[in-house]
């Protein structure tokens, strides 16, 4: 299969979040960027699917500036065959999905994989929007993806409200990836060396604008200080939860 | 302005998010003179239950004319909703940011060419010019972002538990909804469904009891379940616990797991790594139970107990049962 994996770069999960002086953007001082963890699972699964079915290519794509190239090189080191970067500043999900769709429509991919959400803006919308732009079926929040025994069909488990279900989906399709799908791979030295000479293509954007207009960021309000109870004061704790917090 | 509301059902029963969706729309836009709140049911429920959404302010419920929406399928549901939006002349769609909402809202934002404000925390502030100011969490609850949302057609999805449904109104009429004979169903085919039985869904739960490594092993989880049972709570766990397969990954709350905002979150034997706190810090009230008085969880907790989970849990469960019985 020819598989396209959509990657975003996000601050490392241990990052303490602070915003710029005008509250319009993240304060990037000292922030380490990583491949969005769910997108990294998508990449690993793409490699596994092609290893199992014996053939095809894995391309990674990112909408963003040149500062994302270390993350794309890492994806190549993990095993992607080539990388594409659409040269645009990503401002909202709609813009990213529209740019990706415009690129994909000129290519011939069998499958598009991406994470179920990015851990920076957490919207989880790009996969769904992309599937509608392409008019491909969507399987959101997949926990397993396997060949279904006939060409052009995959068997996919997905999380849903109140449980999980298994579906067969005809390709081409868009699938978003959830934990449990697979374990991320750590690039080895050979992969890192090979990544240096793999193609990384920069594509001009369509110039599609965002729908949303960001006014400001803020940190969550500070919580009040903790009130302590001893292990033998559980009746008092329950009383506080009932009368003071009113949550029981 | 005309508002359409998408309401979810499961196995023929209205979901909690259905009441929240109606109430969210009515509480936000009735004060701005909107009088028409039409509900599109995502699958069939009883006529009486459907009419009952009028008690929360709905003015009309459209019920699918056949069973083609009863099981959730993004293709079919988004096609039917698009048709309903176009026929009704609505300019706003309100839905919950559940698994179903996360599949439907982005597809409709493209097919209906609408501006989507997703995962909104509170009812929007409606400005003089009709635009909204909405707030949502970003960086997995470590930050907040405020957006201005404008456009002729808009979709708003709100996080579960964003507000409490309020009774205001009387049962409303129910009319049939055209389901377009299952548009686009053929490209996915359902093989099997595993439903979580007898458990409160984590994302909907008003109370959550969560266990970490301090429980010392999966054999002690009956203590978490006992407390959850005593206060009608859902159960959850930290990342190490799901990584060690003590509990399944769908209970993992945190930055790379599920983000929740219950009224009460009780963290037992969880130290409070920044990634875990990110997923739960929007909870209204937090109780931390940990042997280590320096555990970071105590910095965000409202109530704390320094002690061993295995000793504290049975006492707390007993205290809740005593209190409920009195």
Descriptive overview:
The complex is a heterodimer of chains A (248) and B (326). By secondary structure, chain A is an alpha/beta fold. Chain A is 27% helix and 28% strand. Chain A has six helices and 13 strands. Chain A has a nine-stranded mixed sheet, sandwiched between helices. In chain A, strands 2-3 form a two-stranded antiparallel sheet. In chain A, β8 and β9 form a beta hairpin. In chain A, α2 crosses α5. The mean pLDDT of chain A is 95. Chain B has 326 residues and is α/β, with parallel strands linked by helices. Helices cover 28% and strands 27% of the residues of chain B. Chain B has helices at 16-29, 47-52, 74-88, 99-111, 221-230, 239-243, 274-280, 297-300, 309-325; strands at residues 3-10, 13-14, 37-42, 60-64, 92-96, 115-120, 125-126, 132-138, 143-149, 154-158, 174-177, 188-195, 207-211, 234-237, 264-268, 285-290, 303-306. In chain B, α3 (74-88) crosses α4 (99-111) and α5 (221-230) packs parallel to α9. The longest helix of chain B is centred in the C-terminal third of the chain and has 17 residues, at 309-325.
Taken in chain order, the helices and strands of chain B follow as EEHEHEHEHEEEEEEEEHEHEHEHEH
Number of domains of chain A: 1
Helix amount of chain B: 25-40%
Largest interchain contact: A-B, 79 and 96 residues
Count of DSSP H/I helices of chain A: 6
What about the largest sheet of chain A? 9 strands, mixed
Strand content of chain A: 25-35%
Mean pLDDT of chain A: 95
Number of DSSP E strands of chain A: 13
Q: If you average the pLDDT of chain B, what whole number results? A: 93
Describe the global form of chain B: globular
Structural class of chain B: alpha/beta
Q: What is the CATH top level name of chain A? A: Alpha Beta
Give start-end ranges of low-pLDDT stretches of chain A: none
Strand tally of chain B, please?
Answer: 17
The shape of chain A, in one word, is globular
Number of helices of chain B: 9
Q: Tell me the CATH topology of the largest domain in chain B.
A: Rossmann fold
Task: Record the strand order, biggest sheet of chain A.
Answer: 9-8-7-10-6-1-4-5-11
């Amino acid at each position: 299969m020819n598989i396209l994996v959509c990657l975003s770069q996000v601050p490392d999960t241990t990052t303490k979040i602070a915003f710029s002086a005008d509250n319009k953007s993240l304060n990037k001082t000292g922030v380490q960027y990583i491949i969005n963890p769910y997108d990294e699972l998508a990449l690993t699964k793409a490699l596994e699917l092609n290893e199992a079915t014996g053939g095809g290519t894995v391309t990674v794509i990112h909408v963003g500036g040149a500062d994302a190239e270390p993350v794309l090189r890492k994806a190549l080191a993990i095993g992607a065959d080539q990388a594409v970067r659409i040269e645009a500043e990503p401002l909202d999900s709609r813009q990213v999905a529209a740019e990706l769709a415009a690129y994909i429509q000129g290519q011939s991919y069998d499958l598009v994989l991406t994470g179920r959400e990015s851990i920076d803006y957490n919207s989880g919308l790009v996969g769904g929007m992309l599937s509608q732009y392409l008019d491909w079926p969507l399987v959101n929040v997949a926990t397993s993806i396997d060949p279904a025994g006939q060409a052009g069909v995959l068997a996919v488990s997905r999380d849903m409200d109140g449980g999980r279900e298994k579906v067969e989906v005809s390709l081409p399709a868009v699938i978003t990836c959830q934990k449990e799908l697979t374990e991320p791979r750590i690039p080895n030295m050979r992969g890192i060396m090979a990544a240096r000479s793999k193609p990384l293509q920069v594509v001009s954007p369509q110039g599609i604008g965002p729908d949303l207009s960001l006014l400001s960021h803020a940190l969550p309000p500070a919580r009040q200080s903790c009130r302590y109870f001893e292990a033998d004061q559980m009746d008092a704790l329950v009383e506080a939860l009932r009368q003071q917090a009113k949550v029981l | 302005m005309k508002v359409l509301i998408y309401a979810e059902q499961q196995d023929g029963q209205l979901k909690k998010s259905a009441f929240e969706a109606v109430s969210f729309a009515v509480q936000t836009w009735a004060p701005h003179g909107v009088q028409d709140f039409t509900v599109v049911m995502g699958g069939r429920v009883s006529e009486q239950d459907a009419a009952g959404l009028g008690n929360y302010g709905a003015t009309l419920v459209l019920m699918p004319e056949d069973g083609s929406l009863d099981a959730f399928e993004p293709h079919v549901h988004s096609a039917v909703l698009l048709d309903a939006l176009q026929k009704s002349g609505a300019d706003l769609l309100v839905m919950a940011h559940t698994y179903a909402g996360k599949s439907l809202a982005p597809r409709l934002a493209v097919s209906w060419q609408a501006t989507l404000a997703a995962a909104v925390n509170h009812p929007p502030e409606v400005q003089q010019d009709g635009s909204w100011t909405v707030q949502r969490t970003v960086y997995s609850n470590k930050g907040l972002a405020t957006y201005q949302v404008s456009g002729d057609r808009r979709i708003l999805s709100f996080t579960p538990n964003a507000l409490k449904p309020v009774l205001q109104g009387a049962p409303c009429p129910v009319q049939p909804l055209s389901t377009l004979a299952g548009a686009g169903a053929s490209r996915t085919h359902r093989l099997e469904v595993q439903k979580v039985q007898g458990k409160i869904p984590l994302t909907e739960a008003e109370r959550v009891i969560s266990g970490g490594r301090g429980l010392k092993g999966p054999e002690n989880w009956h203590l978490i379940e006992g407390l959850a049972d005593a206060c009608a709570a859902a159960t959850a766990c930290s990342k190490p616990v799901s990584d060690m397969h003590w509990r399944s990954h769908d209970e993992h709350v945190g930055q790379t797991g599920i983000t929740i905002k219950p009224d009460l979150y009780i963290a037992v034997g969880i130290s409070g790594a920044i990634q875990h706190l990110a997923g739960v810090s929007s909870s209204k009230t937090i109780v931390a139970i940990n042997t280590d008085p320096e555990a970071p969880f105590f910095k965000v907790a409202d109530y704390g107990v320094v002690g061993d989970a295995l000793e504290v849990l049975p006492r707390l469960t007993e205290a809740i049962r005593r209190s409920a019985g009195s």
